[in-house]
Design a protein that fits this description.
- Helix content is 33%, strand content 22%.
- By secondary structure, it is of the alpha/beta class.
- It has a six-stranded mixed β-sheet with strand order 2-1-3-10-4-11. Strands 7-6-8-5-9 form a five-stranded mixed β-sheet, with helices on both faces.
Amino acid sequence: MLPIASIMLLIGPVSASEDDVVVFAAASTTNVVSALAKEFEKRTGFTVIPSFAGSGTLARQISEGAPADIMISANMEWLNYLDQAGFLGPESLMKIASNNLALVVPEGTPIPDPFEFEKLPSILGQGRLAIGNPAHVPAGNYAMAALQSLNLWDQLESQLVLLPNVRAVLALVERGEVPFAIIYETDMRLARNISLASIFPADSHPPIFYGMAKIKDNDGHSTSLFYDFVRSQDGQEIFRQFGFIAEGG
């Protein structure tokens, strides 16, 4: 794998040599994609340059000509959007992992056991609930779908704090600035000072699939090698190590 030249939490200009692999990846994949990049560098000597943000932000940047070679999205919708608009390499779109949706609280918060979602409004009181912005953050889409499915959206909409990506949601609840937040279950592994209130029922939201695709006309040798590595048995094992549900390999 190539040295991880830069891991950007915010999108900015990407400077890469011809053989570098520029990967635009959902913020919720920061740790696993960084680990994939490191292992790939060790094996091949090619550099991977990841750039992390909300999937919608990344998709829009690609549609405006940002120099990505591969996109890894926290849902399939943004990749389908790019595919329909003609920005993806032929037949390169695929599912690579899945996840669960979690309701979390600052560490030390008393939580009823078992937790009953229908009681969330009364438990929340006048507090705020942090989620990703559903306009462009897949985790926010899943959160909205789950709250709607559980008949909680209308009750809680005025108390929502909408943030630009999952990492921003995580930071807010870690600092104790909100009493509840909705994140991916895998983000629990990255968090400090938070506790799990409950996992949302799987049938309360669409399946949380992560997808990957090559960007059209950016299909060099190193890009193809990284793409194949991510979906290989070894690549999928790295997803498992970070708590994702691997799709294959």
